Amino acid sequence: MIGQTVSHYRITRQLGAGGMGVVYEAEDLDLKVTRALKFLPPYTATTDEDRNRLEREARAAAGLEHPNICQVHEIGRGGDQTFIVMSYLEGLTLAERLADQEPFPVSEALDIAMQVGKALSRAHEAGVIHRDIKPANIMLTEGGPAVVMDFGLAKVSDLTRVTKTGATLGTAAYMSPEQARGIPVDKRTDVWSLGVVLYEMLTGRQPFGGDHLAAIAYAVQHVEPESPTRVRPGIPTDLERVVERALAKDPSGRYQTIDEFLADLEAVQAERGPDRKTLKHSRLRRLKQRRKLVVGGLAATLMAILVILFWPHPQRIQALAVMPFANLSGDPEQEFFAEGMTGELIFELSRLVPRVVSRQTVMNYRDSDKTLPEIARELNVDAVVESSLLKMGDHIKASVRLVKADDEETLWAETYERPIDNILAMYGQVTRDIARAINLELSADEEEKLVAATVVHPAAYEAYLKGRYWLGKDKNPDNAMKSVSFFQESISLDPTFAPAHAGLASIHSTLFVLTGRTQMQHTRLAREAAIKALELDPYSAEAHSAMASVHMILDLDWEAADREWSLIPDREREQINDYAVFLCFSGRFEEAIGWSRKTLAKEPMSSDRIRSLAMSLMFARRFTEAVPVYENLLEFYPNEYWGKYGLAACLERTGRHQEAEAVFPGTPTSSDMLIMGDRQRVQGVVEELLRIVDETGTREEAFHLSRHYAWLGDREQALTWLTVASEEYPGDLFCINVMEEFDFLRSSPEFRACLRQAGFTEKIIAASKALTREDILGDF
Q1: Torsion-angle region of residue 391: left (phi > 0), alpha (psi -120 to 50) or beta?
Q2: Between vectors from CA 552 to CA 546 and to CA 553, what angle results, nearest 5°?
């Protein structure tokens, strides 16, 4: 293109080229000035949406006029190519200066940091966050100011976010902890990054190091850097305190604005007096003849965005099914190992892939003779993971294959052999290999989690997998207690194995539903196990969900339960059915229904997902809508007790009495009687409960008595026994917010006093007051 004219620019020479485009020196024929033009590959802006997105970023950057910000002048078209026009700069990047010399003089480091701070102050004022402050993006121009480049990665306030994720942008050593974790960032992320740059200028080394991305990201989040004065004695203590505050891992402990940071830097500079060495007299002048660097300013990072957004990748796998591991040992006793490994791999992949079919659903295909394309169509997935397992003494050999759903093409295959004590690392390796095979980019935090696997005690791990095996079986007290015994065995063999504590917490939080009056004992045991699991692994989604159940059932603290759920990432939360139950029991019916529909769309054959939606509709008193959902559940799972219970209740409430009767053949339970509207039988249950109270001398059945009296419409007795329950057995009231039999009492002061006595907050009491037939249904 040398010598050609594009728009009103005459190309004079090529300055550089790479995968992200070609940079040319060009003469602006209108203004008679030299510019730098970066031509983008043709595929980067092929649609109007692409071009609008690019132009939006360019306009945001172009609006940042400041002596310390590289100016973007325009974005243009030349034939079928898009190009960006920016200022032509000569000098060295700060990265090159750092590579060339020992730590900077304090005054020079201060001078550069303040100039960068002023550039950021202007950007923040305009609502732009840089998010990629690092030495390579700071140009030390010859005889002029330090100039900040690459505002193309900025998050523009109130505009559509065009980058894929903040977690993978920038250089790991300069990313803030919140950016490394992949969570939303604000202006304080630039404060952190500038703090890292200042630390490096003062000490000659980066505060956070490591051999690979995951190690650096871990250090950024968890390791405190060595104090600057220990690395380089003589640094002013006031300046050290400024750096340490800028590098506070918790953003709330950091400078809240770049202007606060600047003010402290200026104060340190003022204390040092006027006779300080500045950029103008630094080694930059002596390096002037060494080389000239022409910088395209903003273009490099804009190009990075465009490549991320528009490079034609192979088709991404958005939905994946991990089929049950085939047990090649021929030993039925090893079935738990194959099933447990299936569940573990599903969980690891579900953290990364947009949709991974649940363990419960894929287990329906364990002995299926359907072809992979048939299974894939039924599950609506793009690819299937097939695996086989052979346990040989203390070693595991696993063969894993990724198969394209439509034509059974093998996309990737690998065989792994590991000792059992290294099996967690194997899960991480398989997960990373599959992620790479489906072109999935991992954030630093995701990489760190996958490589952070610990060595496990082989026997403890086998006991743990047996616990998970029985946890996944039909929910009944016998299976649950087997699960408990194996988790306890695992913990006795290795008290530091967090997943076993988390599994124990999970099964105890389930047992309260299955064991009647002993439920409070199980919630207390769930709390103990969850606390221990979180001490060992603060990121355990299973432990957080168990703790949320404890807060809901034992503490009646719904706000604490909500906070616990909020600590679990959405993708992992979607794997845990209890979140919908929490939303429903707390009276947040629309949220519960919406969440259930969302997860059911991804798992249309999951009994947990179907049941959650049906239950949420029923407790919202939307009985007509709930009926077909319950029918769908029983079509897939004919023996599902809670499906029969809910269907009968909804049929009864919609006047379909004979159909409701047919759902429960044989002798109904006391709960069934409440559903069926059999007044005589309910009266009989009341008499039996009163007999138990007389014989035992305890009032453990108080809540059940209150509930049955409420169904009979006996207001006085219902409130009398509810008062006893609220004083002596408050945990029994945890689901009172959704029990229809209490609706006629909700507006009474006595009812609200019972909830208050039990320990419910005023917010929950207010929600319970609103949960009346009139409020929900109007004319019932």
Answers
A1: beta
A2: 90
Contact 445, 222 (CB under 8 A): no
> What confidence tens digit (pLDDT) does each residue in 479-536 have?
888 889 999 999 999 999 888 998 898 888 777 666 554 456 777 888 899 899 999 8
Residue at 484: amino acid letter: V
The closest alpha carbon to 220, from 201, 247, 202, belongs to 247
> Distance (Å, rounded) from C-alpha 500 to C-alpha 497?
6
* The one-letter amino acid at 53: R
How many CA atoms lie within 13 Å of 592's alpha carbon, on the beta-carbon side? 27
Phi/psi-derived region of residue 327, left when phi > 0, alpha when psi is between -120 and 50, beta in every other case: beta
For residue 355, the cross-strand partners are 319
Structure tokens at 140: 């030390």
Residue numbers annotated as active site? 132
| Residue 381 DSSP symbol | -
Place 279 in a pLDDT band, splitting at 50, 70 and 90: very low
pTM of the model: 0.54
Spell out the residues 6+ positions from residue 433 whose beta carbon is closer than 8 angstroms to its own. Answer: 400, 412, 414
Question: Is 139 within 8 Å of 146 (Cβ atoms)?
Answer: yes
Residue 620: Cβ-neighbour burial (10 angstroms; 0-12, 13-18, 19+) = buried
3-state helix, strand, coil in the chain (%, to 5): 60, 15, 30
Which residues, 6 or more positions from 582, have their beta carbon under 8 angstroms from its beta carbon?
548, 549, 552, 558, 561, 562, 565
Distance of CA 483 to the CA centre of its chain: 28
Average pLDDT over residues 535-559: 86
Q: Sheet with 89-93: list strands edge to edge.
A: 146-148, 138-141, 89-93, 293-295
